[in-house]
Design goal:
It is a single chain. This protein starts with a helix and ends with a helix. The strands form 3 sheets. The chain has an 8-stranded mixed sheet, sandwiched between helices. It has a two-stranded antiparallel sheet with strand order 8-12. It is an alpha/beta fold and 305 residues long. The chain contains 11 helices and 12 strands. It has helices spanning 3-12, 21-28, 46-60, 77-83, 104-114, 133-144, 163-176, 195-198, 209-221, 241-259, 298-301; strands spanning 13-15, 33-39, 65-70, 87-90, 119-122, 150-156, 191-194, 203-204, 226-233, 268-275, 278-285, 290-291. Helix 3 packs parallel to helix 4 (77-83). It binds uridine-5'-diphosphate and ligand XDX. This is Glucosyl-3-phosphoglycerate synthase. Residues 55-150 form the Glycosyltransferase 2-like domain.
Length: 305
């Protein structure tokens, strides 16, 4: 490993076991915490995750609110999340005068408009096994280290999980940003950050969001502003290969945008299907847009939350 990455890894990696609930609750002080979920057709999983966070909120006060921003689910996601006790928004109802854009990054960005917390914990809404220590673990370094602004989850991902991480994100970061080679899960959708950081950064609207936030945090605040917490194991995966190709391309765009900002980049990924004896090209839009730092949106300063 690059020596800078090795020393960062040693300084800034902890385990959820280092952050028991009573310790994290003591550290919380006056800070307020929002758990935010971006959803799209997650009716099978979102209720249990919200439920788990609500129990933590009601029984310990560690979490102040659970907010869901839905990207336009066609299933019962919004009802399941509401029934479990989250405050649920359709993405079109937040900053509705702005162009509606698809994507999880956009929903995470919009969550900043409606969340009240000083600290925001994002959790993927399609986790099959949510554990409350995901929240306590991610909050631990933020609450105990004033210099840390972004805490990423890390975990083992049994095969075939995490293929984009292993085949695109980590190789690419190792080549261009070797000081980040100690990041176990740079794409993790479970991460916690200070609002004061998130509100100053652009958000890729799609699957590039985590890569962009990670790189921009390091570029602007230095490597030590980032920590990672081992949450054990995350079992999810084997996403359809074509969809993973789209995620991989979004990651590639996001990294290249930071290295060669003025280079042209083609925003379509061509994939192929076989229909009977013919191979047919299927174009997917990729690269995606991005939202500016939310502090540049006038309604942000006057929001009611
Ligand atoms: O437009 C979107 C696309 C995805 N997601 C959520 O982002 C998480 C991860 O997305 P996805 O399942 O596409 O990625 P995977 O983890 O399968 O690669 C899930 O909770 C999705 O519901 C979202 O909120 N809006
Ligand atoms: O690393 C990967 O290959 C992808 C997909 O992993 P899985 O096939 O869901 O285990 O996971 C990353 O990207 C997802 C979409 O942006 C996020 O939801 C995951 O949190 C992230 O680890």
């Amino acid at each position: 490993m690059h020596p800078t990455a090795t020393s960062w890894f040693d300084r800034r990696t902890s385990s959820w076991r280092d952050w028991p609930l009573d310790r994290v609750a003591r550290l919380k002080g006056d800070a307020t915490v929002t758990v935010a979920l971006a959803t799209l057709d997650d009716e099978q999983t979102v209720g249990e995750i919200v439920d788990g966070v609500r129990i933590l909120a009601d029984q310990t006060g560690l979490v102040d609110e659970v907010v869901v921003v839905d990207s336009g689910s066609q299933d019962g996601t919004m009802k399941a999340a509401t029934d479990a006790g989250a405050t649920v928004y359709h993405h079109g109802d937040i900053l509705s005068e702005h162009e509606l854009l698809p994507g999880r990054g956009d929903a995470q960005w919009k969550a900043l408009m409606v969340a009240r917390g000083d600290l925001i914990v994002y959790v993927d809404a399609d986790l099959a096994e949510f554990r409350s220590y995901f929240i306590t673990g991610l909050l631990g370094p933020l609450l105990s280290e004033p210099d840390v602004s972004l805490v990423k989850a890390c975990y083992d991902r049994p095969h075939p999980g995490g293929q984009v991480t292993e085949l695109m994100a980590r190789p690419l970061l190792n080549v261009y940003f070797p000081e980040l080679a100690g990041m176990v899960q740079p794409l993790a959708g479970e991460y916690a950050a200070r609002r004061s950081l998130l509100e100053t950064l652009p958000f890729a609207v799609g699957h590039g969001v985590e890569t962009g936030l990670l790189l921009d945090t390091v570029l602007e605040s230095g490597l030590d502003a980032v920590a990672q917490v081992d949450l054990g194991q995350r079992t999810h995966g084997g996403g359809e290969l074509a969809a993973l190709g789209e995620v991989a391309t979004a990651v590639l765009h996001t990294v290249l945008e930071r290295i060669h900002p003025n280079d042209p980049r083609w925003d379509t990924l061509t994939q192929f299907n076989r229909v009977k004896d013919a191979i047919t090209a299927v174009d997917r839009p990729v690269g995606g847009g991005k939202r500016p730092p939310i502090t540049t949106i006038p309604q942000y300063a006057s929001r009611s939350s």
